[in-house]
Amino acid sequence: MQSLVRIKNWLRNPRQRRQILTLLSGGLILLSLAARYGGGSAGPADSMLLTAAIAAGSDIAARAWNNLRNRAFSIELLVSIAFIGALAIGEYWEAAAVTFLFIFGAYLEARTLSQTRKVLGELLDLAPTTALVLRDGRQVEVAPEAVRVGEMVLIKPGAKIPVDGVVTEGRSAVDESAITGEPISEEKTPGSSVFAGTINQNGMLKVQVTGAGADTTLARIVRRVEEAQEEKAPTQRFIERFARWYTPAIIALSGLTLLLSRDIELALTLLVIGCPGALVISTPVSIVAGIGRAAKKGILMKGGEYLENAGKISAVALDKTGTLTEGRPRLTDIIVLSEEALPLPQANAAHVPVTGGHFANRWSASQWQVLRWAGIAESHSEHPLARPILAEAGRFEPVPEPDSFEMTAGKGVIAHFMGSRIAVGTNELLSGLDLRPLADAEKRMAVLKSAGKTAVWVAVDQSVIGILGIADSIRENAAEAVRQLRRNGVQRVVMLTGDDFRTANAIAQEAGITEVYAELLPEDKLAMIRRLRQEGHIVAMAGDGINDAPALAAANIGMAMGTAGTSIAIETADVALMADDLLKIPQAIALSKAVLRNIRQNVLIALATVSALLAGVLLGEVHMAGGMLIHQLSVLVVILNGMRLLKA
Amino acid sequence: MKTILRSKELTCPSCIAKIEKALKAVNGVEEAKVFFNTGRIEVQHDPEQVSGADLEKAIRAVGYEARVSAF
Q: What per-residue confidence (pLDDT) applies to A619?
């Protein structure tokens, strides 16, 4: 009894049932051939073929019926009518061959199709299974999703990191290739972020949890890949609409043929070869494989639509700071313009830390004064350029806070401190305050900018006291990335930046970009993207995903770079590049183009097969079983072609 | 609460309706959704009445293996 139930359950599994039925009908067909050519009598051979056709056909007919109840004309319906018709007119061989080929093909399809889903499975396999948490001074092993934010987790060498978190103790190399696609391990020290699913290689790490279970970067990536694979590409939607009327049309055509020619076999053959199998899966197979492959390279695509669009990109706009450059600006120059530099209006504030060793001696006393003034003005600023100024100004003593503070986007800041007005910013900011630097000062500023540095004025009350030069080095592979973009058919590569023309030009020249738009406000960047689109380009905008949000949204494809740590970017960008690597941009475009090519090849293969078969049938050259064989082969060719993308 | 299960055995889109129906028939299940491309199964249910293991069992009863997943 027990075993009967088990067999019943086992047969309920459609995959296993189909496997059995395929073997059964295939075996019977072979036996019937042996009977016919061995014994010579047709009787037993025919009954074997009949059994084979019923065995395989019952599964097909059941599914056709199921689909019909859901008001869908399926391929199974075409095949069912065909084989029942064939049985009715005594064509047992045709019926058996057609049904066998169909379910055998379906079995192969399912197997190969699951290969294209493999990448998602690999991502899921990354999911950690246990976490070693410190609770009440003891080490407890729990499921990773049971770890609470704020708890401390121990990660042994060789272990999988179970949560997202920040290292508090220890030092180790961590293999993050699963998340970022970067093969080189990251060195982690206290303060570094770590991600669930990455592998701790050689040291013990103590990590404070910032996210566990579904609230980890890995979970977000999985979610993103899944949504992307479920989302239908425009071509796919088109084909599905097409298939909806195509199947009934084939039935009608076959009925018409029957009426006109009175040839049942011809009508049934039309049904078989009219199956749109290859066409229906032509697009999803490429998309699922392409999205999976991209995810493995650390490129997250939002879905088929974006993949198709990314394959058509003809213009790429790159943000300068943080995209073309490393995004880690350092204060490199302090130029003192007024020799009677103004001491700070505080007794000890002008104190210059000469005892601080090497770093303190980097700047002279008057340079420190310029820096201190600028630091006070910038101390509330969120601007990326404020950071290096503040970091340097606050190196030895805390920077006092201003009494009032006002930030002007794209120009700079104006602050008040103990009765003095401090302005740090661009030419425009100064002229707005009726301040004019001397001609000599302008020249010195120009020198800084021509070297690719960002330079700002520092003014206190009515005098311009200095210039600060901030350098953000260009990424090593910027020029290579731009070259690769061009090689991948991108006609226009433009740089968009809020920075000054001269600075922008210096960086652009190094990167090999000829089209530069500088001194842009965020809304100007948006307008530039719109203009490119109006000129007929499919535009990709690459930025850091936070400051460039409007421009990213306005582009056909918004690419956010280095997003492993930022959950918002993973969820909102059309294409999220997990690693901080510029070369991922041309890679993403190249892969998308490959997918687009693959889809077109598949549609072509499918259409060519169906038309060739149709012609063959009408000319009387192709019969039912042969037609089915070729049709099933075309489906496999399409799947195999799609799978090539897994290696792209 | 929402529980996510995954199955590697979905081969035909018609399986979707079958699994969804079986899950919704379980007491305490409010909503069930099956995604074909990825084999992801999302179930909205009352944890007091139905556990993850119960959901796995309900899916197994209609002939598919699925496992509860953290995400």
A: 85
Question: Under 8 Å CB-to-CB from A626, ≥6 apart: which residues?
Answer: none
Q: What is the dihedral of CA A635, A637, A641, A644, to 10 degrees?
A: 120
Share of chain B above pLDDT 90, in %: 20
Structure tokens at A583: 């070369």
Per-residue pLDDT at A244: 74
What average pLDDT does this structure show over A18-23? 85
Report, in angstroms and rounded to the nearest whole number, the Rg of chain A calculated over CA atoms. 34
More confident residue, A389 or A16: A389
In chain A, which residue's Cα lies nearest the Cα of B59? A13
Q: Report the residue from B14, B37, B71 with minimal CB separation from A222.
A: B71
The answer to whether the CB atoms of B38 and A14 lie below 8 A apart is no
Active-site hit among A59, A319, A548, A580: A319
CA-to-CA distance for A140 and A130, rounded, in angstroms?
10
**Whether A319 is catalytic:** yes
pLDDT tens digits, A429-488: 888 888 888 888 899 999 998 888 889 999 998 889 999 999 888 898 999 999 999 999
| ipTM, two decimals | 0.73
Q: Which helix (H) or strand (E) holds A470?
A: strand A463-471
In chain B, the residue whose alpha carbon lies closest to the alpha carbon of A7 is B63
Distance from C-alpha of A61 to C-alpha of A535, rounded to nearest angstrom: 54
Distance CA A298, CA A588 (A): 10
Residue A270: closest CA among A284, A281, A259: A259
Query: CA A177: distance to chain centroid?
Result: 15
Find the residue in A nearest to B41 (Cα).
Answer: A226
Whether the pLDDT of residue A560 is over 90: the answer is no
What percent of chain A shows pLDDT beyond 90? 24
b/e burial code for range B36-63 (CB count within 10 A of at least 16 → b): bbbbbbebebeeeebebebbbebbeebb
Q: Report the C-alpha gap between A76 and A56 in whole angstroms.
A: 12
First to last CA, chain B: 13
- Say what the pTM is: 0.73
- Cβ atoms A248, A256 nearer than 8 A: no
The minimum CA-CA distance between B69 and chain A, rounded to whole Å, is 9
- What tokens were used for A169? 């103790």
Residue A543 DSSP SS3: strand
pLDDT at A190: 93
**Spatial distance between the Cα atoms of A175 and A182, rounded to a whole number of angstroms:** 9
Determine the pLDDT at residue A97: 87
Query: How does pLDDT run across A370-393, given as a tens digit for each residue?
Result: 898 999 998 888 777 888 898 888
Please name the residues in contact with A439: beta carbons below 8 A apart, sequence gap of 6 or more. none
The answer to whether B70 contacts A120, with C-beta atoms less than 8 Å apart, is no
Buried b (16+ CB within 10 A) or exposed e, A243-272: beebbeebbeebeebbeeeeebbbbbbbbb
- Please state, rounded to an integer, the average pLDDT across all residues of chain A: 84
DSSP symbols for A81-127: HHHHHHHHTT-HHHHHHHHHHHHHHHHHHHHHHHHHTHHHHHHHHTS
- Cα A134 to Cα A116: distance, rounded to the nearest angstrom: 40
Rg (CA), chain B: 11
Q: Do A219 and B60 touch (CB under 8 A)?
A: no
